[in-house]
Every structure is written in structure tokens, then in C-alpha cells.
Specification:
This protein is of the alpha+beta class. The chain has eleven helices and 14 strands. The strands form three sheets. Strands 1, 3, 4, 6, 8, 11 and 13 form a seven-stranded antiparallel β-sheet that branches. It has a five-stranded antiparallel β-sheet with strand order 2-7-12-9-10, covered by helices on one side. The protein has a two-stranded antiparallel sheet with strand order 5-14. A hairpin with a 2-residue loop joins strand 3 and strand 4. It is globular and about 65 Å long. The N and C termini lie far apart (47 Å).
Length: 375
């Protein structure tokens, strides 16, 4: 089962199920889980109502996971998100080829993504049921342009190479992979030192709705052109590695605009299961660099499942459906890096992070004494 964050009791008023009008009022005032659940009984083809309720559901889940001390079941996705997604899809079918704006199309594609992934894994004939839905949607809705039932991110550039697991010898990736692999001993040393000194510091990820069970947390090091000085003061060599990787942290030649991206250390506890899901778009690849990877952690992307290699990074396209199981007996730690897709042709140059990293070193020196110079 895919479960969310704290147990919720169904609370419908004494007068029974709310009306469509009442539900439309809910969405204007940040509805509660109980109100969203009650609205599921409304018979409506109002696309805006169901899309807004779905958005509200994610906001509530995100808020509760940030406010909570841990990750406990909140509500069953089969019971709430899947029915809302069904209603969005039925409303879209009723509209047919009616012009929808880009945001509305995205909402329908997100609902279809949820339904296809859910149906694929809901029963023994799930793959066939999911394929039927996939091809029905392509036939009925002109903006559904997917070509692969496993490649259903909401924002796909069809001209980009679509490869679930990338070859580490690829010319675009090889240099970064070589540097990352050589740095693994330093990453392990810094993590060990950090864990000896700090028992806290990893926070829940925003994407907690994909955690079927267990715990999945992160410590952010770099995000969209900015290092976290406090975090880097503990992970100097790790942050220096990130600064050396233009395909991760670089800038576009001739532009001062900061490119989106994220680097963090991800922690996953034994018994954790990340349920099948996809990323939002295909403008990036993901690189995982092993720091501590016990046996028993397996990773599926599309139709191929792999285990971690403790001495080598892996690179995959998260716009394909993917899933993770931690069947080992100790925590898994990896360095997570977003990589700009090579087909974006960004002409990336190494970013200038000397000033940022000097601040991190200064914090480190104030705490622990002199630290080596690298950049």
C-alpha cells in the first residue's frame, strides 16, 4: 500500500456528503484531508474542482510531513489520490478535444500518470490494464503524446534521448563519473566524521508521498547555484567535488542565469520502499554516488532492476517509472546529483564557487581548526 503521514478519521457532517458548491468553497480555503475525502462522493465533471483538490492534497501532505517528527501513515493513496485522478481523467474525456491551457493539460497528464502507475501494480493483469488506459488516453486526448507506457512524466521533450540507465562511458558523463568515483573515499570519511558529531541534520524530503514505508531523508549541499555554507562546512571535499562538475553545477556560457539543480546526501533506513513513480520532466538525469550502500538495496528503472556498486556511481533518467527497495540491515547513504540532460546543449562551464566555499571553510576552521585548500 502507498500510505501518507498520520492516521486520519473520516469526518463527514451530519447532513451527509457536501455539494459541489461546498467543495468549490473548500478549495478556496485550504481544505483539510477530511473535507477532501468527503468531496469524493460528489458527482461532478468540473475539471477545475478535481485538479484543485488534488493540488490541495499534496499541499496538506507536504505540510504535515514538514511539521511532523517522522513519517507515519496519513492516508491511503488508493482511497483519495487515485479516485481524484479518476475524476480528473473522466472530466478531461468529457471535454474531449476542447482546448485546455498548458496548466490544465499538465493537471490531466499528472492524473493519468498516477492512474497508469497505480493500475500497473494493482493486480496480476495490471500491465495490460495500464496499457489499455495509456492507449485510450492517447486516442482521446490530443495532448497525450507519450510513446512508452513506462515513460510518462508530465513534461517530456520528445527530441531528447530516452534511456532508462545511462552508460557511464558516455562521453558527456565519463569525466564527472570518473571524478565522483575517485572521491568516494573522501565522501565516506566526511560522512563518518559528520555522523560521529551530529545525530540530527537530515530532513524529510518533500516527496514523502512516494514513501510506501520506512524513512527517506536528505541533507542539502547545493541548490540552483548556491551552496549551503553550514552543510559544506562539514562536507568540504564533497562540496569541492560538486563545484568541479559542470554538468551538475556549471553555468551556461554567456549567461548569468542560475540553472536549476540539486545536490544532497540522501539517507534511507532499512525496510524503506519508494513506490513506483516518475519525475516531472526529462530535462535532467540523476547521478547516485555510493557512500554507504549495504547489500539488499535494489533499484528499478523502467524494466531493469540493479543493485548498487559500492565503487561506482550510477546514472539514470528519472522521467521513467522507477522504484527502490531497501532490504538491507543498515542505513543507505548516497550523494544525489541532478545532471543537465546532454540534449539540452547548454554549453556548460565550470561555475565560480570560490567565494561560497571559502565561507564554508571559514565555518569549518572556526569549529575544527585549519582545513586544506582545494579550489
Amino acid at each position: 500500500e502507498m500510505l501518507f503521514v498520520v492516521a486520519i478519521v473520516l469526518a463527514v457532517g451530519a447532513c451527509g456528503a457536501p455539494s459541489e458548491r461546498t467543495c468549490l468553497k473548500y478549495v478556496d480555503s485550504d481544505p483539510t484531508i477530511e473535507q477532501i475525502r468527503a468531496c469524493l462522493s460528489v458527482d461532478s465533471m468540473n475539471l477545475e474542482l478535481w485538479s484543485t483538490l488534488a493540488e490541495s492534497l499534496f499541499k496538506v501532505a507536504e505540510k504535515l510531513s514538514k511539521d511532523g517528527d517522522g513519517f507515519e501513515p496519513m492516508f491511503d493513496v488508493d482511497e483519495i489520490l487515485v479516485p481524484i485522478s479518476e475524476k480528473i481523467y473522466h472530466a478531461a474525456k468529457a471535454l474531449g478535444e476542447t482546448d485546455l491551457d498548458e496548466d490544465q493539460q499538465g493537471e490531466v497528464l499528472q492524473a493519468l500518470n498516477t492512474l497508469i502507475v497505480h493500475k500497473r501494480h494493482a493486480s496480476s493483469d495490471g500491465p495490460e490494464v495500464a496499457a489499455q488506459l495509456f492507449y485510450e488516453a492517447k486516442r482521446l486526448l490530443p495532448y497525450v503524446t507519450w510513446t512508452d507506457t513506462m515513460h510518462i512524466a508530465c513534461d517530456l521533450n520528445p527530441t531528447f534521448r530516452a534511456i532508462p540507465w545511462w552508460n557511464l562511458e558516455d562521453q558527456y558523463l565519463k569525466g564527472a563519473v570518473t571524478l565522483a568515483n575517485a572521491a568516494i573515499p573522501d565522501l565516506q570519511t566526511e560522512l563518518s566524521e559528520y555522523l560521529q558529531e551530529q545525530q540530527e541534520g537530515f530532513r524529510l524530503l518533500d516527496d514523502q508521498f512516494i514513501v510506501g514505508k520506512g524513512s527517506w531523508t536528505e541533507k542539502i549541499l547545493w541548490e540552483s547555484g548556491q551552496f549551503d555554507n553550514e552543510a559544506c562546512s562539514y562536507f568540504i571535499r564533497t562540496c569541492e567535488l560538486v563545484a568541479k562538475l559542470p554538468i551538475v553545477s556549471g553555468r551556461q556560457a554567456g549567461s548569468a542565469r542560475r540553472l536549476d539543480g540539486l545536490v544532497s546526501i540522501l539517507k534511507m533506513t532499512p525496510g524503506t520502499h519508494l513506490v513506483p513513480h516518475t519525475g516531472a520532466h526529462n530535462r535532467r538525469l540523476l547521478m547516485h554516488v555510493p557512500i554507504r550502500v549495504p547489500k539488499g538495496v535494489v533499484f528499478r528503472v523502467a524494466n531493469e532492476t540493479r543493485a548498487y556498486d559500492s565503487k561506482s556511481a550510477m546514472v539514470f533518467d528519472d522521467s521513467f517509472e522507477h522504484e527502490v527497495w531497501h532490504n538491507g540491515d543498515t542505513d543507505r547513504y548516497i550523494l544525489y546529483l541532478t545532471v543537465h540532460h546532454p540534449d539540452m546543449k547548454l554549453n556548460l562551464k565550470r561555475g565560480n564557487y570560490q567565494h561560497q566555499l571559502k565561507r564554508a571553510r571559514r565555518l569549518r576552521e572556526e569549529r575544527d581548526g585549519p582545513v586544506h585548500e582545494e579550489l
